[in-house]
User: What shape does this take?
Amino acid sequence: MRRARVVVAGLGDTGVLTAMHLARHTDVIGISVKPGLVSGQELGVRLSRPDDWSRDYWTSFERFRRLDRVRTVHGELTSVDLAARTVRVRHDDDSESAHEYDTLVISTGVTNGFWRRPTMQSSAEVDAELRDAHDRLAEAESVLVIGGGAAAVSSAANLAARWPAKRIDLYFPGARALSRHHPRVWRRVRRRLDDLGVICHPDHRAVTWPCPASAGSGSVTDHLTSGTVEWTTGQTPATADAVLWAIGRAVPNTAWLPSDILDERGFVRVSADLSVPGHDHVFAIGDVAATDEFRTSARNRADKLLARNVRADLGGRKLRDYRERKTLWGSVLGAQPDGLEVFTPGGRRFRFPAWSVERVLQPLIVRRGIYGGVRPKTWGETNLP
Assistant: This one.
């Protein structure tokens, strides 16, 4: 008897791990617009130290040992026939292919800023995009960072650490940033921002429309912009050489899906077990799945639960429910030259010294433990300057 075929639609942070778990027991086809895992994590490190970020968060699929059993397809999902159990994919030469499945896992994520977009890219284009954003910020004498989440706070801190002579201003809409973290986390991070010279501006909500000419086409939040930012909260407009928008305006990548499986915001409706109601053998996970208000299955290692549920579904067994986390945890600023600071859901912090990040955390816990082995880069692969 042939093994069941699972199509994993989207190979981002969560999709890659889900495909790895399923590949031991099923035939997996993974579909991605990128030629590897281009993580959505650690925006601040990505912008300030792209070489370090690329080493840990941009990995071609061929380097993952546990993806050896997975057939990866480089292309853009254009449609799905849920009755016929077939997805269609457009490739970079405009040709199309169709792929049948027994089970479909939807993990196409969201568009959120210029760093998370569902655009077809080659390896060279991924590298060029990393360089371009870094170079533009390097040339700016002043930077406005707009947003109150971890991406904005991390960006402000890392840019200030990388370029101490720049003026870095952080604007956020509430009385404090990191509102979904425990209050202790913001108090600790705010002290770090003060030490780095970041100027914090609470209670500022930016005008995001119309899109300024410096942004080009699309929404203002899709670009690094420059010039003046105005505030709906009435404060004096602010001006800078570069404006980084990290306001968390996530748009689900679901244009290829039928509307009857989507909620009013375009996210995929799921039951507690991550299955799509009304459609057998269809699941969703990650930022695209409407599990809860903040779509927390993207950050709580729900990949193992989903892989188990897919296998249980194929075998006619009972599925388990996903349980969301109410409070965020983990790192905020990412790895720094002096180590990595991690916060618990209760706001307590733990520090990993720099040597342990380089010799234990990344090579043993992440690359070997979580991903099951990552091959080193081969000679000739591009490295960022």
Q: What stands out?
A: DSSP finds eight helices and 20 strands in the chain. The longest strand covers residues 238-245. The chain has a mean pLDDT of 92.
